[in-house]
Amino acid sequence: MYLSKHAGDGGARWALDGHYLPDSFTLGSLLGVPDGDARGLLESLPLEEAAIGQVLPPVEPAHEVWASGVTYLISRDARMSESREADIYDQVYDAERPELFLKSAGWRVIGHEGEVRIREDSHWNVPEPELVLVINSRMEIVGYTAGNDVSSRDIEGENSLYLPQAKIYDGCCSLGPGIVISEPDPIRDLPIRLRIQRDGEVVFEGEISTSRMKRSFEELVNHLGKELSFPNGAFLMTGTGIVPGDDFTLVPGDRTEISVGELTLANSVSQ
Asked: CA dihedral in degrees (25, 64, 270, 158; nearest 10)?
């Protein structure tokens, strides 16, 4: 099952497997029921005409997007290389408590074929391709989407307390193009790929599998839900295992393509 959100004359509408759902359907309502009832709810809804409107980010304004850090070994090594406080990344990689932070409010998320941004006050910026878990109000995993956690490596590397400025700003978070409804097991070994094009030429390519993650999905979700409630559900980025070399930075005009399983999320880069 595949959910997508589209622009229409009467406003945004959700679609299931390429056909519009009733106007009254919201993602928040789906994520408000137990995981075992989600498929039944979708199957009970009548499908309407084919969805042909522009694809929008697969979130609603009330949703929050959270992110996980240092969940792959290569991510730990990259953070240690860029940082003046390298030991903290080594410590959090092995710690019981994971690194979790709020990445974006739903209304700020960029969608497929939209423009992500790099900060004007940063000179070292990278895309971070990630599997993004879609979580219901009971902190159950109901599916996934693809995500781009755009980050300013020089700002975070200067001081770890600058992480919010390195990670959270207008245009820093992209999700899409839609949501694959899935149990957790089929997504524990999904390929993640990143390709960056500049002036029509590929300047970086990389690939990894979600099976290389240090932490389990359940571990990350359980820590996120320890003292937080999400009545409308939430999105959780699970960290990146693809890091361009230290000599690479995004520039305006670049195009990023992130594939997670069967999904491909493409964005242009601006400043």
From this structure: -170
